[in-house]
Amino acid sequence: MKHFTRISDLGPAGVKEILATAAAWKKDKPGAIFMDRILGMVFFNPSLRTRASFEAAMLRHGGHAIVLEVGAGTWKLEDRDGAIMNEDRQEHVREGVPVLGRYVNALAVRTFSHGDGDDVDERDPVINAFRRFSTVPVLSMESAREHPHQGLADLLTVQEAHGSTKVPVTLTWAPHVKSLPKAVPNSFLLTAAACGAEIRVAHPKGYELAPEVRAEAEAYAAATGGKIVYTNDQDAALDGSAAVYAKAWGPSTSSGQEAAPMADLSAWMPTAAHMQKAAKEAIFIHCLPVRRNLEVHDSVLDGPWSRVVDEAENRFHVQRATINALLTQR
User: Fold this and answer.
1) CA end-to-end span of the chain, whole Å?
2) What's the whole-model pTM score?
3) Could you give the CA distance from residue 180 to residue 137 in angstroms, rounded to a whole number?
4) What tens digit of pLDDT does each residue of 53-79 get?
5) How far apart are alpha carbons 34 and 102 in whole angstroms?
6) How far apart are CA 89 and CA 91, in angstroms?
7) Phi/psi at 99 (nearest 5 deg)?
8) CB of 170 within 8 A of CB of 238?
9) In terms of C-beta density within 10 A (0-12 exposed, 13-18 middle, 19 or more buried), how is residue 225 classed?
């Protein structure tokens, strides 16, 4: 049984194939490819674009989506093996997940990091529990480690803007009011590396991405002719970049570096002055939602560089490609 919850499920060749299908279907949409198919969508955490785009992909092509919000209309789910279930989690994934598989053709799951550290995020316990016990294909709508459909949408947006994914791109850290999970920056790094991009990752000291993610990205870059550079110099990373991706994420729990408080790092917020250091034809992308004038300045989001709405639309296009790939696998 093949699932898609991480970029490694596709690899560079699979990423290329999904992007090609998404680009083709954006020009000439397919017919009722999901007729009589049902996607079960399980949300442990809230959503706007993810829920709407997955539902739209099913409904616009003859299928249907069932939305379940864990703990709000459904029982809370326990995913720990050997747990004594005497708290507030009334149903175990060992029963709940295979039951859902009797009703639907595929399951999509959204579960955020609980902030327990890079090691726990690497194990990705909830999404991997669904992989273990599901009798139907599982897709990630974001998990503790990755947000793979966001990464695919990001690179489709880069490809549309520049005609290629093999261009210099910058992933830059941005400030926030709280520590955010690393799933989105992880997926941009992994997907860009799988696409052969030259990636500059800029962040303050103490905000390194996990070593396992960096090692996986390096392997993809080696296979695709890409390149990855890590730096604490944001200006150097922006110089000549064709695409700038700004995203907040929390401090590293595995690097041993002492991270400065976010309140002291406001200069990392991208502004028009930052974008003017990039290439003339540079675009700006962000997964959304974005906290204006804290994470990214208005001058960027409202400026000529912004492709954030196009990028959000591209979630729909890559997702119908991955759903179809899983439902038609042999």
Assistant:
1) 9
2) 0.95
3) 28
4) 999 999 999 999 999 999 888 888 888
5) 18
6) 6
7) -65, -45
8) yes
9) exposed
